[in-house]
Amino acid sequence: MGHNKEAHPESHFRVPAIVNALEKLELSPKFRGSNVIELETFKSASLDDIASVHTRAYVSGLEKAMDEASQQGIIFIEGSGPTYATVDTFQESLVAAGAGISLIDSVVAQSKISKSPPIGFALIRPPGHHAIPKGPMGFCVFGNIAIAARYAQRVHGLKRVFIIDFDVHHGNGTNDAFYEDPDIFFLSTHQDGSYPGTGKFDEVGHGDGEGTTLNLPLPGGSGDAAMRAIFDEIIVPCAQRFKPDIILVSAGYDAHVLDPLASLQFTTGTYYMLASNIQQLAKDVCGGRCVFFLEGGYNLDSLSYSVADSFRAFLGEPSLASEFDNPAFLHEEPSTRVRQAIQRVKQVHSL
Ligand SMILES: [Zn+2]
User: Where is the Histone deacetylase domain (predicted)?
Assistant: First the structure.
């Protein structure tokens, strides 16, 4: 709650909005007993956990910057573009990354006793997928999902990690962390030309990691139909071919049609479909082991209802999207250009 800047879209109102929606829609542990488990006690990530992805110089530099933040209130971290920090940012970012790690532990433990373990969902911030190894970037401080991927490998022996990033922006930090790593497949869909401008078709990994990075930039206006086709034609065959031990998801809700920061046309129903299909995919390819990480999503209503409908998907309950989605906000998807993008990525990756 201390990592906050007045009127900034990545604000401390985001997680409480989601938690309130989960309460209101009776999706919290209070209403669901053991079907929805909240992890209440977990450790902050250690500096070694963070250093599995980030440079020690960045981590110690950020810790030192907290002194300056305590005097000035808000600071902007050098070289980071629009990433703010407050006096609480360092500690709270360790808590966020630690929550993701704890969910890995919990889901892995459950997967040893059940073929359909619960899906983990890290309702955390600051988000992580833009943070690069040597610094913060784009509202992101530590690469929560990248840190969790390294942890899953190191501590649980889950060697092969499949990361799906459906945030509207390119997950450049995760992309960079694993660009030469053949054991971590990074698949990102994002709006072509949106921040930070990376994630082109020909960014496919390098060296031993060539072919285990897949970037799919989508034309503005792409929406539900585009994402359904991409799931069936790109995500499923890539995961089946890669044979992961766990699936991690950079779940950004800023591709929603109502989100103020971009112009794709996902709906609550699109997020329900993604949650349901990814859960099934995890059951099919990796014993159901799957953890979602909150990334973007800046319209508090579309963010919180989309996460809540994702929870309904995980619980095997029908979507409530028709109550939240207003078809009047939607216009026709650029289906020809979407088809061209899908064909191009299939060609690049021999799918
Ligand atoms: Zn985003």
Answer: 8-312
What integer is the mean pLDDT of 242-258?
A: 98
pLDDT of 82 above 90: no
Q: What angle do CA 235, 265, 249 make, to 5 degrees?
A: 35
Question: Got the DSSP string for 36-104?
Answer: S------PPPPHHHHHTTS-HHHHHHHHHHHHHHHHHS-EE-TT-SS-EE-TTHHHHHHHHHHHHHHHH
For all residues of the chain together, what is the average pLDDT?
96
Q: Which residues lie near ion ligand 1 (Cβ < 5 Å)?
A: 167, 169, 252, 254, 296
Any domain includes 13: no
| Per-residue pLDDT at 91 exceeds 90 | yes
d(CA 127, ligand 1 centre) in Å: 9
Domain containing 299 equals 33-348
- Residue 79 confidence (pLDDT) above 70: no
Which pLDDT score, from 0 to 100, does residue 83 have? 87
Q: What's the 109 CA to ligand 1 centre distance in angstroms?
A: 31
DSSP 8-state secondary structure symbol assigned to residue 235: I
Q: What is the CATH number of the domain that holds 180?
A: 3.40.800.20
Q: Which residues does the annotation mark as catalytic?
A: 130
Pure H helices in 179-330: 224-230, 236-242, 268-286, 300-314, 321-324
